[in-house]
Specification:
The structure is a single chain. The protein is mainly α. GO terms for molecular function: magnesium ion binding; terpene synthase activity.
Length: about 350
């Protein structure tokens, strides 16, 4: 669908259309199906970027080209937007009549660098007009504008962008029916994948029975953590990674809550020392049952991780995660500092 001709055969107009299509595919959440084709298309198109935009005066097109190239790591110059300024050096007021162009410029401005001063001006200019524009356009575009003002596409979760954009694109009169159907099917597939994962991690969580083995100090966040992980990797091929990361962040949550919300100074120090050694501290046998459970839970999770990735020869990834958990030196120092403060405080 994306590569009807080889990149080398693309003219400026064809290359431009391909880049605009890449924007649609990215926004609809299906770009991951065409990673190699997108890479080749953008590499060729960027070589001809100056010729491609030389006679282009549509705000929407320039903004989308900028957004796509910057999103995929190509440093398209922000000077391309100088053509939209008047003799006074300000963005022309007539641009404010172009709702889609203003929205795309607003989104493009979120990919600016610290030296793209013109994009700072673009962000201020678009924000000044977008609220009023939202009340003047069709409902589906108005929703897109209002949502973008709340959180730009660049900072939003890709799966949430896709959910919103599929609905928007369906109401566009010039939408491609094949692309729309493909996007809907892809979104349904992702939903089913996430539900399957959530069923697995909630089953794992319930079987651990934290409620009967720990005092009620911990946060019950398994669904929230899985949703958070989706924000990092939304594609279906990362299903195993999402499950492992959800478990990893559950370990971090339980560990943090144990230190911050419940454990005494001596208990916290014992757990920190045990984690640092990745083996029970000499006094672990005398600690409360809840603390023994927390430590055993952490070790068991990482043992499972080693089993899952060991067959792939990726022990190094588990080692890095263990180092993250066992890096408790700062915590131990804080405990010692707190103890010294308590000893130095005058008795009441």
């Amino acid at each position: 669908m994306l590569m009807s001709s080889s990149p080398a055969e693309l003219g400026h107009g064809s290359a431009k259309r391909k880049v605009l299509l890449i924007y649609l595919m990215t926004s609809l959440g299906v770009a991951y199906h065409f990673e190699k084709e997108i890479e080749k298309t953008l590499a060729h198109a960027f070589e001809k970027i100056d010729d491609m935009i030389a006679n282009e005066h549509e705000l929407y097109t320039i903004s989308i080209l900028f957004w796509v190239f910057r999103t995929y790591g190509y440093n398209m110059s922000a000077d391309a937007f100088k053509r939209f300024k008047g003799d006074d050096g300000m963005f022309m007021d007539s641009l404010a009549k172009d709702a889609k162009g203003m929205l795309s410029l607003y989104e493009a401005a979120h990919l600016r660098t610290t030296r793209d001063y013109i994009m700072d001006e673009a962000l201020s200019f678009t924000m000044k007009h977008m609220e009023s524009l939202a009340g003047q356009v069709r409902p589906h575009l108005s929703r897109l504008i209002q949502n973008a003002l709340g959180l730009s596409q660049h900072w939003n979760m890709e799966i949430l962008v896709a959910m919103e954009f599929v609905s928007f694109y369906e109401q566009e009169e010039d939408h491609d029916e094949t692309l729309l159907k493909f996007s809907k099917l892809n979104f349904k597939l992702l939903q089913l994948t996430y539900l399957k994962e959530l069923k697995m991690v909630t089953k794992w969580y319930k079987e651990l029975d934290f409620a009967s083995k720990l005092p009620p100090y911990f946060r019950d966040r398994i669904v929230e953590l899985h949703f958070f992980v989706i924000s990092m990797y939304f594609e279906p091929q990362f299903s195993s990674a999402r499950i492992m990361l959800t478990k990893f962040y559950t370990v971090e949550t339980i560990t943090d809550d144990t230190f911050d919300r419940y454990a005494s100074i001596s208990e916290a120090e014992n757990l920190a020392n045990s984690l640092e050694r990745w083996a029970p501290d000499k006094d672990m046998d005398t600690q409360p049952d809840y603390l023994k459970f927390v430590f055993t839970f952490i070790l068991d999770v990482f043992k499972d991780f080693e089993g899952e990735v060991g067959s792939e020869g990726r022990y190094y990834s588990v080692k890095g995660a263990i180092e993250e958990v066992t890096n408790q030196n700062s915590l131990v120092n804080c405990i010692h500092l707190y103890q010294s403060i308590l000893k130095a405080s005058p008795s009441k």
